[in-house]
Amino acid sequence: MSDQYPSGGPHGQPDHTQPYGEASYGQQSYGQQSYGQQSYGQQSYEQQSYGQASYGQPSYRTEQSPISVQEERTWGAISHAGAVVAMVCSLGFLGFVASIVVFVMYKDRGPFVRAHAANSLNLQIVMFLWLVVLGVAYVVLGVLTLGIGFFVLLPIFFVPPVIAGVLHVVGAIKAWNGEWWTPPLTPQFVK
């Protein structure tokens, strides 16, 4: 009789010949879950595609969103003004730090801030190159003049930082006013 009914007996009744706890074909025994069911007290999570954060988890974005026009002006001005402040505080040696920080953080956020931060960094590179050239000339002329050149040529080291400081102030004002500007006699090492 159980051969003609897949679930045991007629009308889905269990066949009394099966041992207790074993499910007949197509039926589930007590306490077992079927695929797709959740047990009591477990939360259900929907599967999400790779790279998407689920509810309550922070999302990690690889691309940065663009900033407003006013923020571009502000950060463009900060790239120049920060270089001046750093140059004054470090006697001309750390002016590049502000330029690098603004360039790295905001280069992909807008073309205006990228241009001003790159110009600020280019100005710092040119100033550094001039200081290297002047340093070599200072040592050579100091040795050739038996030490007199060391004292006479010392003020020349203040010229590149002063010129760079003036150009940074002009750049900060131009950036604050929203004007595109490239410092004169400054090659574009960083674009």
Q: Please state roughly what percent of the residues sit in beta strands, choosing from under 5%, 5-15%, 15-25%, 25-35%, 35-45% or over 45%.
A: under 5%
Count all strands and give the number. Answer: 0
Cα end-to-end separation: 87 Å
Helix content: 40-55%
Q: What is the total number of structural domains?
A: 2
Q: What is the string of SSEs from the N terminus onward? A: HHHHH
- Overall geometry: elongated
The assigned structural class equals mainly alpha
Q: What can be said about the biggest beta sheet?
A: none
Task: Please count the helical segments.
Answer: 5
Mean pLDDT over all positions: 78
What is the radius of gyration computed over CA atoms, rounded to a whole number of angstroms?
37 Å
Low-pLDDT segments: none
Membrane topology: Multi-pass membrane protein
Protein name: DUF4870 domain-containing protein
Keywords: Membrane, Transmembrane, Transmembrane helix
Subcellular location: Membrane
Structure description:
- The chain crosses the membrane at residues 81-104, 125-144, 150-173.
- It contains 5 helices and no strands.
- The protein has 191 residues and is mainly α.
- It has 2 domains: 1-42, no CATH class; 69-176, no CATH class.
- The longest helix has 34 residues, at 111-144.
- It is elongated and about 60 Å long.
SSE topology sketch:
Blueprint: H1 69-89, H2 95-106, H3 111-144, H4 148-152, H5 159-176
Helix pairs in contact: 1-2, 1-3, 1-5, 2-3, 3-5
Membrane topology: Multi-pass membrane protein
Biased composition (Low complexity): 20-40
Region (Disordered): 1-40
